[in-house]
Amino acid sequence: MKRDVDYTWRLAELMAANGMHNSTDLIPRLAERGIQLSRPQVYRIVHQRPERVALQLLAALCDILGCGVEDLVTVTATDTRKKKTASGTTAPPPNVVELNKSIRPRRARIITDGND
Asked: Are 7 and 78 in contact (CB under 8 A)?
C-alpha cells in the first residue's frame, strides 16, 4: 500500500514563542554555534518550507529554541487509496474513449457483380 508523507515546518512559530520576531534574530545565535548563514538564507529557512536541512543547522535550531526535532518538524503520513468504480475496477482516464460503449463502425459487406 502506498503512503503519502508530508511535514510542517514550525520554525517561525517556535521563534515567536521564544520572543524572536525577526528572522535576523537567529543570525548571531547561529554564529555562536559555528553556523554562518547570510540574511537571505536565514530568511528562507524561517519563512519558507525547506526541502533539505543540514543536521548541524537542525541541531543548532533545536538548541536555540530549546525544543526537539519533533517540535520543529511535524510529520503526517496517510494511506493512499485507489479510487474504484462500482464494478471494482479503476475508472479510465477522462481522455480515453471506451470502444465497447461508444458507436462502433458497421461491418462492411463486399458484393461482387459477377463480371470476373
From this structure: no
Per-residue pLDDT in tens (0 to 9) along the chain, 116 residues: 788 999 999 999 999 999 999 999 999 999 999 999 999 999 999 999 999 999 999 999 999 999 999 999 999 998 887 666 556 566 767 777 666 666 767 788 888 887 75
| Dmax (CA) of the chain | 103
Cβ contact 5:76 at 8 Å = yes
- In this structure, the chain runs to a length of 116
Look up residue 102 and give its DSSP letter: S
pTM, to two decimals: 0.65
For 54, the domain range is: 3-79
The domain that holds 36 is classified in CATH as: 1.10.260
94 occurs within a structural domain: no
Report how far residue 44's alpha carbon sits from residue 23's, in angstroms, rounded to the nearest whole number. 9
98's CB contacts (< 8 A; 6+ apart) are 92
Query: Is 107 part of any domain?
Result: no
